[in-house]
Structures are given as C-alpha cells and as structure tokens.
Amino acid sequence: MTASNETNQSVVTRRRFAGLAAFTSAAALGLSRVGDAVAAERSFVPAVVVGTGYGAAVTALRLGEAGVATTMLEMGQPWNQPGADGKVFCSTLAPDRRSMWFHRRTAAPLDTFLWLDVVNRDLGTPYAGVLDRIDFPAMDVYVGRGVGGGSLVNGGMAPTPRRSYFEQVLPRVDADQMYRRWFPLANRMLGVNSIDPRYLETTPAYRYARVSRRHAHQAGFRTAVIPNVYDFGYLEQEERRQVPRSALAGEVIYGNNHGKQSLDKTYLADAVGTGRVTIRTLTRVVSVRADRRGYVLGLEQIDASGKVVRRSELGCRQLFLGAGSIGTTELLLRARETGTLPDLPDAIGEGWGTNGNVMTARANHAWDPTGSLQSTIPAVAIDNWDDPVHPAFAEIAPLPTGLETWAGLYLAITANPERGRLSYDHATDRAILHWQASQSTPSIQAAKALFDRINRATGTTYRRDLFSGNRAFAADFCYHPLGGCVLGRATDDYGRVRGHRNLYVTDSALLPGSIGVNPFVTITALAERNIARVIATDLTR
Ligand code: FAE
C-alpha cells in the first residue's frame, strides 16, 4: 500500500466512524434527524436527496464528498434504537408492530402454510414499521421504509448482471466503463462478500440450498453461488453460537438485527461522516414545485403513529429523487398532473416492470429433508438465463419456520417483456399502477418451464399450500419494482429529468422494468456513474 492510499484509507475509516457515531447519538437522543442540527432546520439548502435507499445513499455520499451541503428526506424511521425486547427489529416468525408500515396485519408473501392462515398476524395499532406493501389491483409491491430503504428488509443478494443482458437493457450506457469501474466500486462500497465454499457444503443451515441445487443439476440446469452483503463470517459465528443470531434466527424481511451491511452501515454512515449530509427522518415529501432558485418541496413530518406533527417547505438548488421506483415516479406524476411542474415529460410513469418476479415452491420427497435450521440469507441460484425461450434466474430461498417442511422455495427472476404504467389519481392523490393479471403470465410460464423439468427429473410436485387460492405460482407481487422514469426516456442518459435543470432521478425508477438478476448492485453502480458525471459537469461551486 502506498502512503497516499493509506491516507485515503484512514480518511474513509474515520469518516465511517463519525457517521456511525452520529447515527448512534441521534437514536440515543430520539432525534428526528441524523447529522447537523442547524442544517436540519434550514429552509433552503444547496442539494436535497429524497429517500435513503441505494440511489439516494450513493448520491448523498458523493455530494457530501464534493463539499455540497445536502439534506436527505426519509419518510421512514432510523432503525437503530432497540425496543423493549432489546432488539431493533422483530423476527419473521414473531412479528410485531415494527414489522409493517401502517398495516393492521402483516402481509408476508407466503400467506398460508398447509393451507392454514397461520403465517400473518394482526398487529393492532398501525405503526411506522420497516416493510411496506403497496397494493395495486393486480400487483402488490414490497418496499423498505426507513433510513436505508430496501437495504433494511431485503435478502442482501448482490449479483452483478450478465453483461450481455445489461447491454441489451441499457444499450446507451457504456458497458465497458460499468464493468471496469462502477460495478467493482459498488460491490466494494456495499460490502459484498461470498460464502466460504466449505461452509456452504457442510452446514445444516444451507441444506435447503444443497437439496434444491442437486435437484436442479439432476434436471441438467446450472447453478451459481451468489454473493451477498450479509457478512458470511458473522453467519458462521452465529452457527457456533459465538454471536447473537440473526440470519439463523429467522430474521430478514422485517429487518436483520445483526450481520447485514445495510446502507446505514455503509454509504449513509460515510455520507453523514463527511459532515455535509443531514438526514431528516419521518419526513415525507408530498409536493415539488419550481421557484427562482430551484425547487421547493412540501414536507409532512409525522410521528411513529402516523400523526402529522409539522408541515413545512424546504427549498433547494439541486433536487435528486431516490424515493424508489414507485415513490419517485409518484412525486413526478403528482407534480405534472397537479400543475406544479407541468412540463415534465410524458415518459414519466412509463416502462414499469416487476423484474419478472415469480415465487414458487416444490414438495420434496420424505427422504430429502431441507432442515429445520435455515439461513434466511440466500446463497445459491439456478441460472437458466441462456434458455432461448424462457430465461430465468431463480434464487433458492429459505423457508425458515424452525421445523422440517420438505419444501424447496424459489424467487425466480424472468425476462417478462410486459410493462405496466403508473398514472396519477386525483381522487386519492396517489399513483396507480396499470398492470393486468395476464401481464404476469410470461413470468409464470418461464418459471413453470424450469420447475416442471426439475419436478419431472426428480419425481416431485409443486406445493400448493403456501399461496392462497391453491396456487403453485405467485406472480401477483414483486420485490423488485423497476422503472417509471426510465433512463434515456424520461431522463437523459445520466438521470437528468428532461427539460428540467437540476432535477435528477437516481434510483430503481431508471431501470426499464428488468435487469435479469436481483437489482441493487446495478442501482448502486448506475447511481455512482450518474452522480460522478453530474458533479463533474452540473455543479456550480
Ligand atoms: P429504495 O431502497 O426503495 O428506497 C427508497 C426510500 O425512499 C425508502 O426508504 C422510502 O421510505 C423513501 N421514500 C419513498 N417515498 C418518499 C417520500 N415521498 N418522501 C420521503 N421518503 C420517501 O430505493 N434486491 C437485491 O438486489 N437483492 C435482494 O436480495 C433483494 N431482496 C429483496 C427482498 C425484499 C423483501 C424487498 C422488499 C426487496 C428486495 N430487493 C432485493 C430489492 C431492493 O431492495 C430494491 O430494488 C432497492 O431497495 C431499490 O432501491 P432504490 O434506491 O430504488
């Protein structure tokens, strides 16, 4: 290591410590902001970033590094303050009010077990929990709510997309540069790591993955080990009971108490650590309008019970939208349709897709148990993306009930060409998604082609007891909403909203409905690429 590398390294480490300390003290003091108190009270700031998910976190860090005072606005809570049970998050098996964002009942995607309504629980009074499900007529969209966005609730799977598919999806983005520079940077920053192959082959916690992998091989499919942002070293320690359990204690979609490098531990800690970035929490952006200096946002601050405690406005010169595919698109549609930014492009709301998401489960033979201890963090996938008719990339998912279930569960990503559209509904003041149930059929067909072949090769069948209505496939929900403000259409090739100076989209809304693998590494890498260009060319200092 050279002397200057060492200096850079120590600056980065110090910055992260400072950021993590700011998170801790904000939690200890019960503050509704992380970072500088004075900055959080200003009515005008140079840059605002809406949301704290992947695109937002990257953008805020790089703005902070460039010396731009930046305020992040997040409608969810900071998730680092333990509740009465000493834990920040509740587990998937014993969910409480922390689980869901103002729902009266949990809304887990597997809604029955042995056809019984035993999975979901009543929650009592609605609360600002960490997982939201936005329900549209034929599609339910899961999203994370809180400082860290989807990183708080997701499975941490961190694959880089196949280059040929990336080039097909985003032909105007320089793939050479992405694969040489931005994907490696995103992987490094996110803390992506891989499971030790010896551990994968021997631990009871991944028996389910080995069983499903063997079945896939029997049917002639290829499988791949998938990197993750969960610390696999920590996971091994969990198994030896040297540290508190998280992945081995059924924690994931309602948050992981340990092990996961969510954004509040990486990008956001670094961003706050620059001393230039402040996060205002439980603060929802409800409107955007233009003024002489840039943009003015209407804000609603709520308490954890949902009561609006303050309404205010915040002005900025540069506005970066990172509220997620649905959130960002909704803000721009509302602005266009209520006339506060009437000239926004027609392409806003278009090009929305589910990343071809479809979930299914197989029933294994009695001699093929999958184990009562299952890591919630997936590590293996069936890679059938080369199939000329039905490309599919199927994550082998756990079913961590604490009991033997003999189930093989999968979340498949397929190349479903169908696209939906979001529009603004004046009556409810919300975005509505135009997606027909029939548009999910290509996802089901692709998954069926894959799993029919596995069932034939192994003499097994589908489980029909896990999704209500006796269904073998569930393609009426998605974890990977993508699109709505597509790169090169609603924006230019770097996320600048067409026709609007200093207005940018930074997140999953940029991806045109499909990326072929779990998307957050791509969202992160694209955000890195875009903000580097914007800082180099658009910022006036
Ligand atoms: P996102 O992470 O959704 O963050 C948006 C943030 O903006 C949220 O914190 C919102 O609360 C906030 N927000 C929204 N509207 C407003 C507003 N009006 N005012 C203020 N704040 C607002 O954005 N992806 C993978 O790559 N690997 C996985 O293993 C994986 N598993 C998943 C499992 C689950 C259960 C879920 C739900 C998702 C999973 N994903 C996974 C998807 C991934 O988390 C998602 O693509 C990214 O989080 C999207 O990142 P964005 O930057 O677009």
UniProtKB/TrEMBL annotation:
<keyword id="KW-0285">Flavoprotein</keyword>
<dbReference type="InterPro" id="IPR052542">
    <property type="entry name" value="Cholesterol_Oxidase"/>
</dbReference>
<dbReference type="GO" id="GO:0050660">
    <property type="term" value="F:flavin adenine dinucleotide binding"/>
</dbReference>
<dbReference type="GO" id="GO:0004769">
    <property type="term" value="F:steroid Delta-isomerase activity"/>
</dbReference>
<dbReference type="Pfam" id="PF22500">
    <property type="entry name" value="GMC_oxred_C_1st"/>
</dbReference>
<dbReference type="GO" id="GO:0008203">
    <property type="term" value="P:cholesterol metabolic process"/>
</dbReference>
<dbReference type="InterPro" id="IPR007867">
    <property type="entry name" value="GMC_OxRtase_C"/>
</dbReference>
<keyword id="KW-0753">Steroid metabolism</keyword>
<comment type="similarity">
    <text>Belongs to the GMC oxidoreductase family.</text>
</comment>
<keyword id="KW-0560">Oxidoreductase</keyword>
<feature type="domain" description="Glucose-methanol-choline oxidoreductase N-terminal">
    <location>
        <begin position="144"/>
        <end position="167"/>
    </location>
</feature>
<keyword id="KW-1207">Sterol metabolism</keyword>
<keyword id="KW-0153">Cholesterol metabolism</keyword>
<comment type="pathway">
    <text>Steroid metabolism; cholesterol degradation.</text>
</comment>
<keyword id="KW-0443">Lipid metabolism</keyword>
<protein>
    <recommendedName>
        <fullName>Cholesterol oxidase</fullName>
        <ecNumber>1.1.3.6</ecNumber>
        <ecNumber>5.3.3.1</ecNumber>
    </recommendedName>
</protein>
<dbReference type="InterPro" id="IPR000172">
    <property type="entry name" value="GMC_OxRdtase_N"/>
</dbReference>
<dbReference type="Pfam" id="PF00732">
    <property type="entry name" value="GMC_oxred_N"/>
</dbReference>
<keyword id="KW-0413">Isomerase</keyword>
<dbReference type="InterPro" id="IPR036188">
    <property type="entry name" value="FAD/NAD-bd_sf"/>
</dbReference>
<keyword id="KW-0274">FAD</keyword>
<dbReference type="GO" id="GO:0016995">
    <property type="term" value="F:cholesterol oxidase activity"/>
</dbReference>
<dbReference type="Pfam" id="PF05199">
    <property type="entry name" value="GMC_oxred_C"/>
</dbReference>
